[in-house]
Amino acid sequence: MKKTLGILLPAVLVGSSFIFLQACTAKPGKSQAAPPGGQTIEGKVVLTADAARTAGIKTETARVRTFHPAVKASGTVALNQRKYVKVTPRIAGRVEKVFVFEGDRVRAGQDLFWLWSPDLMAAQAEYLQILARVPTGDKAPASEDEKLHEGLLRSAEAKLKTMGFEQADLASLRTDRRALSVLPVRAPISGTVVEAEAAVGTAAETGTCLCAVADLTALWVQVNVFEVDLASVAVGDQVELTVTAYPGEVFKGTLNMVGAFIDEASRTVKGRVEVANSAGRLKPGMFGEVRIISKDPVTMLSVPERAVRTIAGRTVVFLPGPGGTFVRRDIRKGRTVGEYVEVLEGLKEGESVVTDGSFDVKAEMLKSTLEGEK
């Protein structure tokens, strides 16, 4: 037993000494997490003048800048509903003649098609019968019978107007004392025929759309604004539209409506943009990308977006120091407006950060860190 203890005791002492020696000579572990933004942490690298030139190192100062934030969204060109009219007959009848077809340009008041209707013929005959009993010229009705017929004549005129008669048609009927064989159906606005269903011999029912005219010189763009961008858009904001048909060309417009409901599936809100289209280059149905530019400016401390990098989940920038040193600085960023990033914490106005070459500085810093852990 004593012999056994004599053997074990030295072995335990040797093992303990080895463990103690290993603990004393072990490499220090990784440093603790860096303090929050605004302080220089362990990240630091030195580049030679040649290496800095190769990396194309450039710096820019963090400054308070004024921006008009822009929100990107997708959009579809559509007809301007305020300048789009469907032409429907007010009475039942038959199409006798067609003057325009889809794609034709028309002016307000131009004949689109002629309509024959038995109801119209009867209404004109009634009007002419009453007209024959009314004093001619400027003579005012004297008797009660004449006054009665004057009232009936006004009622007959109103009936004809309801059927589609215009003032020129009534004047012709009153002057010629002869019923019009057809009713001219005219364009209510100037524009382009975008629907044409009328054909000679077509039976026309009241309220049936036989033609549609749209003014294509001003169109709408239906846009979908993401919920997260709603705070940055408002009615009256200027809009820039680009479409694949015309690369590099920008069409200007104004946001004139922001919807009241959010689509639960896409988490977007519908918006409407009005765009001038005097040259007719935009076509309803085109898909495009829009930039909604806020009319209200924002002021913020910012740096170029290319200066901002991410290391181990932290947002960082690199500050140049003496002797080719570059120090990592953690920051907290806010919005991205154009090519600039808002800095909420970590930098002061006037401090310089690396812009061009920041990726090379990051790579060198990570390389040094990995080599130090070997």
Description:
The protein is an alpha+beta fold. The protein has three domains: 40-66 and 299-372, Beta Barrel (conserved putative lor/sdh protein from methanococcus maripaludis s2 fold), CATH 2.40.420; 71-81 and 216-296, Beta Barrel (Elongation Factor Tu (Ef-tu), domain 3); 89-208, RNA polymerase II/Efflux pump adaptor protein, barrel-sandwich hybrid domain (OB fold (Dihydrolipoamide Acetyltransferase, E2P), Beta Barrel), CATH 2.40.50.100. Helix content is 24%, strand content 37%. The chain has a six-stranded antiparallel beta barrel with strand order 4-13-16-15-14-17. Strands 1-21-20-19 form a four-stranded antiparallel sheet, covered by helices on one side. It has a four-stranded antiparallel sheet with strand order 3-18-23-22, with no helix packed on it. The longest helix has 24 residues, at 2-25. Mean pLDDT is 84; it is low at 1-41.
Task: Give short descriptive properties of this protein.
374 residues; alpha+beta; conserved putative lor/sdh protein from methanococcus maripaludis s2 fold; OB fold (Dihydrolipoamide Acetyltransferase, E2P); 6-stranded antiparallel β-barrel; 24 strands
